[in-house]
């Protein structure tokens, strides 16, 4: 999974594959933030105008037939006045 950062927008991108995979995402084991978007058959997760409450562990679940795997990334945000985000730290969860 490759995170791409642009201002207060965070993109989580999984590698492309020629096989038929089913992708899904969770944050802290629950639903994603309402202002997040999925694209490219759920392969890309975009969080626009990130807020401090968007931080946490994001997990990409990948399934093909009977094989399932997942990868998690821990998104940590540092705030500035009025709830905006000034910086972020992202680490892979083992």
From TrEMBL:
Origin species: Plakobranchus ocellatus
Domain of life per record: Eukaryota
UniProt domain Ig-like: residue ranges: 1-74
Annotated InterPro entries: Ig-like_dom, Ig-like_dom_sf, Ig-like_fold, Ig_I-set
Official protein name in the record: Contactin
């Amino acid at each position: 999974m490759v995170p791409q950062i642009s201002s207060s927008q965070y993109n989580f991108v999984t590698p492309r594959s020629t096989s038929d995979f089913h992708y899904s995402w969770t944050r802290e084991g629950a639903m994603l933030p309402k202002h997040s978007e999925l694209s490219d058959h759920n392969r890309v997760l975009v969080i626009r105008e990130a807020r401090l409450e968007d931080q946490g562990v994001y997990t990409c679940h990948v399934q093909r037939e009977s094989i399932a795997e997942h990868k998690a990334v821990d998104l940590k945000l540092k705030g500035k006045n009025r709830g905006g985000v000034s910086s972020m730290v992202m680490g892979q969860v083992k």
